[in-house]
Amino acid sequence: MSLVDLAFDGTLKPRDLTGREKEIDAVDKATLYTPLGAAVFSRHKEVIKLLLDYGANPNGVPQSYPPLWIAAARTKGHIGSIVGMLLARKPDVNIASDLTNKSTPLHALVKRYRSEDDVYVIEALVDAGANPNAKNKRGESAMSVATARNDKKLLAILSPNGRKRSHLRNLGMLVSLILFVFAWVNKRPALMVAAGISATAIRGYGPIKKRFKISGLDKAEIPPHILEKVEKDKSARNFKEEMNRYIKKAHLDQFFRKGKEGFLDEVIKKAVDLQSDPKSSAHPSDLIRLALFQPVLYCDDSGSMKRDNRIQLQADLSERITSLTTRLVPDGTGIELRLINGQTSDLMSKPSPEKVSEILKNRVVYAGPTEIGTNCRAKILEEVVYQPIRKKMFHRPVLVSILTDGCPLGPPGSNETRDTLKDVILKCGVFLEKHGYRKDVVRFQISQIGQDAAAKEFIKSLATDDQLKGVLYCTTRKKHTYSVHPSLSTCIWYLGY
């Protein structure tokens, strides 16, 4: 078994590390956890101590989720003692990676905030130097989250002028205390002596016991199934509050009034389940916003797509986009697939991510020009936006993801020009406002497939057009990496707020 698997199981022993020292910070490809991250997620404290003693990096490695962030964002149950063990090894308390959308451990815990126990951990992070104003990729911070909730208790802790800091004066005391707990549980008097602490003395460390939830050794723990239900209920409430704030700020109230509770409740339920899945690298908070929008995938089937493995690249990206935009939506809803040139078939309505990839690789004939704007209006906006509005059946805002490898080009006699797509997007906004909707309830994202210089210049011209700000987001491809990772979580920009 890998060290990560042993750490997840809680069965990692010193003998397992012999001769495998180079694997101590190895990253599991499925979870992007190091062994220490896996032990933190699973709350195996003896394994955490073992790995730290053997030199595991308390910050993780660049390709992994930071252990302190895992504790704050994903670990179930009481996390105080785990955070205390990590803080004792002097990690970067403001660590923020691309995997976490630049969210710090403090921001993650304030956002997750489940119970009074988390308050003491939040206080400890701030005391250790965590910055309440550090912003993630969406511009959120721990302070802004607490402010949005009007949580006076958290604001007092996060504000340097609103609280008296109770710094941890002796982290060595905390480490000794944890050593004692291990010794007490395992009936090892020698370790108690090494820890320099007695069962009587433990009662004297009130603030630390309270903060890190290490009091009451004689009390039984809450049964795991009860604890899990309590945590899921709290997560569901947090997700619901976050969703309602976004709906209000994005002015989507007209779509999600009474009668939509079933849809929203299902989204929240799936978000809670996703949050507890260690093998998921997606961020539920981001996907909740995506789930509110009806996704439409508009793919390029022009003849130039046959070059440079572009068909495979488009299929892979389309599968990823479909997975993320539909991960949390109720069964029976899903993405709509459309092609620039090809006819729409029944297979293209609500296909699975795998089916989208299969269609684009095996069922599409790649030929013809690139009338991207003309057919965007005819195949997407007429079907998904204009007709439903005229029939008073427009029930969700729309997100159109456009994938293309080239510049607009029509056959002889076509009205397609370089500006057609821009004009179509602008006229969509006019139509929406005329019928009582904000123009940004239909949003567009365009990504380049391949490396055509003219296509890159075309997309750049759209990205820098002030008239399209707020409704269009653009990405281009450079060499073999995307300038913006195609996870769509970074594309929350065009979902706003």
From TrEMBL:
It holds the Pfam family Ank. InterPro entries: Ankyrin_rpt, Ankyrin_rpt-contain_sf. ANK repeats lie at residues 31-63, 101-137. SUPFAM superfamilies: Ankyrin repeat (SSF48403). The keyword Transcription regulation does not apply. It comes from the Eukaryota. Keywords: ANK repeat. This is Uncharacterized protein. It comes from Trichoderma parareesei (Filamentous fungus).
